[in-house]
Design goal:
The complex is a heterodimer of chains A (490) and B (407).
Chain A lengths: L10 E6 L2 E6 L4 H8 L5 E2 L6 E2 L10 E4 L2 E5 L10 E3 L37 H15 L17 E4 L2 E4 L3 H12 L4 E5 L6 H6 L11 E4 L1 E7 L4 E6 L7 E4 L2 E4 L4 E2 L12 E3 H10 L8 E5 L3 H10 L4 E6 L5 E4 L3 E5 L3 E3 L2 E5 L2 E2 L3 H7 E2 L5 E2 L6 E3 L21 E3 L4 E2 H9 L5 H8 L11 H13 L20 H5 L10
Parallel strand pairs in A: 1-7, 8-14, 9-10, 9-15, 10-11, 15-27, 17-23, 18-19, 18-23
Antiparallel strand pairs in A: 1-2, 3-4, 5-6, 5-7, 12-13, 13-14, 16-24, 20-21, 21-22, 25-26, 28-29
Helix pairs in contact in A: 8-10
Chain B lengths: L10 E4 L3 H12 L5 E4 L15 E2 L6 H21 L10 E5 L2 H16 L5 E4 L3 H4 L10 E5 L3 E2 L2 H14 L3 E3 L6 E5 L2 E7 L2 E4 L2 E4 L5 H7 L7 E10 L9 E4 L4 E5 L5 E5 L13 H14 L8 E11 L6 E4 L6 E5 L4 H18 L29 H4 L12 H6 L1
Parallel strand pairs in B: 1-2, 1-12, 2-8, 4-14, 12-19
Antiparallel strand pairs in B: 3-7, 4-6, 5-6, 9-10, 10-11, 13-16, 13-17, 14-15, 15-16, 18-19
Helix pairs in contact in B: 1-5, 1-8, 2-8
Classes of the chains: A alpha/beta (490), B alpha/beta (407).
């Protein structure tokens, strides 16, 4: 948590789409814009629907910052004179003609611009169409030539145990291993360890002095039977780190999966992690009237928000939620009755990001499949918190988004299921679901929940599509900095 | 799954990737009916869904160029033939030389291309910036541009071929592993899926990285071995690089897809691996080539990175034709440029199977060429050859499709 209070921070002026605005030092760009009331930070790929800071869908926080495309506004801190531009708009963010794509019937864009229902087949006409398609489908422009930097040198670190995640469970595991004399490294995505645990009041052990701490590093890849793990810092001018380790402890906790209801993508819908971070780290409320919905933790999270003077107008089970309404931001929810609100915080169903575990425990020559129990990895979880089921309403409207970044609706996935296709790998290829910046989490969890509900099977009966690293956690230059750090297998 | 399999098929194709489906499609155009395609994995699960989707008509040797220029012509008319849009886009394919020695190889290739009536032309270093604005022109010695080349996204090509084959009555089964072969009097007479036997006089093995294991199952040997290749995609951007590219000296290939992702890979010298897991060196080597040749890509993020398996033959060239030791067993293997070569090879193989005509463009790639001491020398391919050339004794274990089938 930040120690400085709001009044002590300096004002900073920056540019948003050419307009000069004032923010506060220490804020991330997303929080600075949120304070000003700007919630639409990006547009979805096909329909150009407004999206923003959700904690779930990365596309909502990607913008061009100082000439670099796809910078994460929820991680990048404000600096004086910063130039921030919304992407995927034409000719400008203010007069975005591409937003007219929202009027296109959903079916027309099934499969995306690049799929083939209504594209011309002749070579010449297809060439023209392809240029248009590429323009519409690409997100930002390439980086400015002035942003070019040499590859930052990576480093290699040797340890016996690598603990991923700095929360209560991660610290416990790190301390246990260090106490037995093993060399322990602990890596955490946040600049400080265990931010979420601290807010929730979980008991946090002090780290054993022998534990080496790597804050601000996102571990994205597990290679060579789990003996080589690689992570990179968000700052593009700092090098990546390759860890040689004998054992991995995954203590990454769980995230709340967005509800499968219409409107789940509207700016103002946020997961509990992001809402608490906003309230505690930045002393800013997610909205003026906030609804908190969950699978049991909603009461505790609402209390935590209220302790920071957030106006909570509704607390209840996520299962009662049938719709979120609003155009450019949330204006109400339907939980059997209509509750006016301008922010929705979801606290469950909770699920762990399966990516690293998949990389560590999958095997197969025809398809990588999760083989629980395999490999030198331990999953640190308190006894009662496995993955929760994502509920799917029998009356789920087909317009509900399953993968907002790629504009994949329940209707599109159902159209293939109804035609007899039930293989998640194939559904992924037919729809591009989960092929945006998140690379499958939380969208494949939602897709498989939908598939299971329509086929009356358990979600666990379906094979997950392959989770692939590095999910945009590393830049080309940072990866280039790894070349002389890890040798090819001889 | 095997319960409703037919008892008999005129041709069984083992492998439902682009090789298998192309051959199945062309077989239907020659009037062959009752074709059965069996694949142990899922649709696009093999190399057909994991490759760089580059389509290249010309190489440095006459043999490769004649086969691949035919294939490129087929790509160009495939959408109208199969009545599905495969989204082949003829945006050209540029081979970039960083070294003078490579430039002279490209000049030699140009002569071959002219012989084969391709419209290729040489791009001197002075005109590189005009031809390829994104590249750092200082790094480039020259380039050879192949205007007939291009790319086609595999989802569109595989979707189109699947739809066209199904419409023409081809029976295609994924997640259906062949577990054995039946032989009678020196010829193949059927395939087993578990206990079920499908009798057929003609069987085509188009199993990609599983080719050696399938050949072994059929009781014949196939030169070469399976090997992992890796590729990666950058996050999408508006159009930045137009043609498909081979950076010959950097052993790197890439192109920008119609949804804006830059997809490509660089080869690194490593012991051949038999796995679908990716490793770090290919990602870092590819990134290093990008950062050097396209400095503006340095701050672009890597979206995903994956591995796939192919079958590598002793001369790195395709292996197509009937197996000399087992009549009725046809092979389509050895593909490292398989996506590009599939329609051409599919057409020639279908003609050979249906009409008994062995085309001159197919003959040099015969299965027994290594045995006869007639490998094909090809200098223009982007593969880390020196790593692959190793002792017979060091060859990795082959995959076992029967073990997969039991899962």
């Amino acid at each position: 948590m930040s120690t400085s209070t709001r009044s002590q921070r300096k004002a900073i002026s920056f540019q948003w789409n050419g307009q000069t605005l004032t923010g506060m030092e220490g804020d991330t760009i997303a929080v600075a814009l949120h304070r000003i009331g700007i919630l639409t930070l990006a547009r979805t790929r096909k329909h150009h629907r407004p999206i923003g800071y959700s904690g779930s869908y990365l596309s909502g926080v990607l913008a061009r910052v100082n000439g670099i495309p796809n910078v994460r506004l929820d991680l990048e801190r404000l600096t004086p004179g910063m130039e921030v531009h919304m992407q995927n708009v034409w000719p400008s963010a203010r007069y975005d003609l591409l937003a007219a794509a929202q009027l296109l019937p959903a079916k027309m864009l099934y499969g995306g611009f690049e799929h083939s229902h209504w594209t011309p087949q002749g070579q010449r006409s297809f060439g023209v169409w392809e240029r248009l398609m590429a323009f519409l489908a690409g997100m930002g422009e390439a980086p400015d030539p002035s942003t070019v930097v040499g590859p930052p040198q990576a480093e290699r670190h040797r340890c016996d145990v690598l603990v991923i995640g700095g929360g209560a469970e991660g610290r416990k595991a790190a301390n246990r291993a260090a106490a037995s004399g093993r060399r322990v490294a602990i890596a955490s995505r946040g600049d400080t360890l265990g931010r979420f645990s601290a807010v929730l009041g979980a008991p946090l052990e002090n780290l054993h002095p022998a534990v080496q701490v790597f804050p601000g590093i996102e571990i994205f890849g597990a290679y060579r039977d789990g003996t080589l793990l690689v992570g990179a810092p968000h700052q593009h001018d700092r090098g990546a780190i390759a860890f040689d380790t004998n054992e991995v402890v995954l203590a990454i906790g769980r995230r709340s999966i967005p509800p499968l209801v219409p409107g789940n993508h509207i700016p103002g819908v946020m997961d509990a992690h992001s809402a608490l971070r906003m309230a505690y780290e930045f002393q800013h409320a997610p909205g003026k009237a906030v609804a908190v919905l969950g699978t049991g933790a909603e009461g505790a999270i609402a209390d935590k928000l209220q302790a920071q003077n957030v106006n909570v107008v509704h607390v209840g089970p996520i299962g009662a939620l049938t719709a979120i309404r609003g155009r450019r931001r949330v204006n109400s929810i339907n939980v059997g009755r209509v509750v006016p609100c301008d922010a929705v915080v979801h606290a469950g169903p909770w699920r762990a990001d399966p990516n690293l575990l998949f990389q560590l425990q999958s095997e197969g020559q025809l398809q990588l499949e999760l083989q629980p129990g395999q490999g030198r990895v331990t999953v640190a979880r308190s006894a009662n918190n496995g993955d929760e089921v994502v509920p799917v309403s029998a009356a789920l409207p087909r317009s509900t988004l399953i993968c907002p970044c790629m504009d994949v609706t329940a209707g599109e996935i159902l159209s293939h299921i109804e035609a007899g296709e039930t293989d998640p790998e194939v559904l992924k290829r037919l729809t591009s679901c989960g092929m945006g910046p998140c690379q499958g989490f939380p969208c494949w969890d939602a897709m498989i929940a939908l598939l299971a509900s329509k086929t009356n099977r358990a979600p666990s009966e379906y094979r997950l599509p392959s989770h692939r690293s590095p999910r945009r956690a590393i830049t080309v230059a940072q990866a280039a900095g790894l070349t002389d750090v890890v040798e090819p297998l001889a | 799954m095997s319960g409703n399999l037919p008892k008999r098929a005129s041709v069984v194709i083992v492998g439902g990737g682009i090789q298998g489906l192309c051959c199945a499609f062309y077989l239907t155009t020659f009037g062959v009916r009752d074709i059965l395609v069996l694949d142990a994995g899922y649709w696009q699960g093999g190399a057909s869904g994991r490759n760089g989707t580059l389509i290249r008509p010309g190489f440095a040797s006459n043999e490769w160029t004649r086969l691949f220029s035919l294939s490129c012509q087929e790509w160009n008319t495939l959408s109208s033939k199969i009545e599905e849009n495969v989204m082949f886009t003829r945006r050209g394919y540029t081979m970039v030389a960083e070294k003078e020695a490579t430039s002279s190889m490209l000049r030699g290739a140009l002569d071959v291309h002219k012989e084969c009536k391709l419209g290729s032309y040489f791009v001197p270093s002075s005109r590189i910036s005009e031809h390829l604005p994104a590249i750092d022109a200082h790094q480039v010695n020259s380039a050879l541009h192949l205007p007939e080349g291009g790319v086609a996204p595999h989802h569109a090509a595989m979707k189109g071929l699947y739809a066209a084959c199904s419409r023409r009555g081809v029976d295609i089964r994924y997640r259906t592993a062949v577990t054995g072969f039946e032989r009678q009097q020196g010829r193949v007479s059927g395939v087993y899926v578990g206990d079920h036997c499908v009798s057929a006089d003609t069987v085509l093995l188009a199993g990609g990285g599983h080719s050696n294991a399938l050949a072994e199952l059929a009781g014949v040997t196939l030169d070469g071995f399976p090997m992992r290749l890796e590729a990666m995609a950058l996050e999408p951007m508006r159009p930045f690089i137009k043609p498909a590219l081979a950076l010959v000296d950097s052993l790197c290939y890439l192109h920008q897809t119609s949804r804006g992702e830059i997809v490509g890979g660089a080869e690194v010298p490593e012991r051949p691996q038999v796995t679908l897991h990716s490793d770090l060196p290919v990602m870092s080597a590819t990134a290093a080539v990008y950062a050097r040749m396209f400095p503006r890509l340095g701050n672009v993020r890597i979206l995903r990175h994956w591995a796939g398996m192919i079958h590598i033959s002793p001369d790195f060239g395709p292996v197509i034709g009937e197996h000399p030791d087992l009549h009725g067993l046809w092979i389509s293997a050895g593909w490292s440029y398989g996506f590009a070569g599939a329609p051409g090879a599919g057409l020639l193989l279908a003609r050979a199977i249906a009409k008994g005509e062995i085309d001159d463009r197919m003959r040099p790639f015969a299965v027994d060429r290594f045995r006869r001491g007639r490998p094909i020398a090809e200098a223009g391919i982007v593969l880390a050859k020196e790593l692959v050339e190793m002792d017979e004794t060091e060859q990795p274990a082959t995959l076992s499709p029967s073990a997969e089938g039991r899962k």
